[in-house]
Specification:
It contains six helices and five strands. It is of the alpha/beta class.
């Protein structure tokens, strides 16, 4: 076989392998152009004082979830008990047990049929901070969409998730504990 045919055969094989992998993994990234991360209608939000966590301010009831960064998540964490803020971990229970934000409630989106009651027991007027692994993990966004359908309107998705929190904070809890 000539060198040209070998190169052509390798190219076609690589192309087919790449396309096959893409189809098998249900990759949503476009074939060409720029990939855009999932955007919710509400812009990223930062808060500076206690008033911002109250219902009539930054995190007022909305048609979609807000997206927040690590700094905002940490501020909300420090104000959680005083302002009725709940941290909800949307990851699998086994992953949650390996490490999570202290006091977080594990409501795995993949096991929502069994765990919905934990979420539904929380007051609808409270602020829910939802997170998963961060990066390309969409479990927290999926949980936010479900929560909106259930009548919860004060939702913030911590986009950096567990990856950012565990990299930047010593506040870590292990075990199935949580709430």
């Amino acid at each position: 076989m000539s060198l040209g045919k070998q190169i052509s055969t390798l190219f076609v094989a690589a192309l087919l392998l790449g396309l096959g992998t893409r189809v098998a993994t249900h990759n949503e990234m476009p074939f060409w152009g720029h990939w855009e991360p999932l955007k919710l209608i509400q812009p990223p939000t930062s808060i500076a004082d206690d008033a911002a966590a109250k219902p009539d301010s930054t995190f007022a009831k909305a048609e979609s979830a807000y997206e927040i960064d690590l700094a905002t998540a940490m501020v909300l964490y420090m104000k959680r008990s005083k302002n009725s803020i709940h941290f909800i971990d949307a990851r699998e229970p086994e992953v949650f047990a390996e490490g999570h934000i202290p006091g977080a409630i594990n409501v795995s989106f993949d096991h929502l049929d069994k765990e919905a009651d934990k979420f539904l027991a929380l007051p609808k007027e409270d602020l829910m901070v939802l997170y998963c692994d961060g990066g390309d993990c969409h479990l927290s966004h999926d949980l936010a969409e479900w929560a909106l359908q259930m009548g919860y309107g004060r939702l913030a998705v911590f986009t950096g998730g567990w990856a950012d929190w565990s990299a930047e904070s010593d506040m870590v809890e292990t075990g199935a504990g949580g709430k």
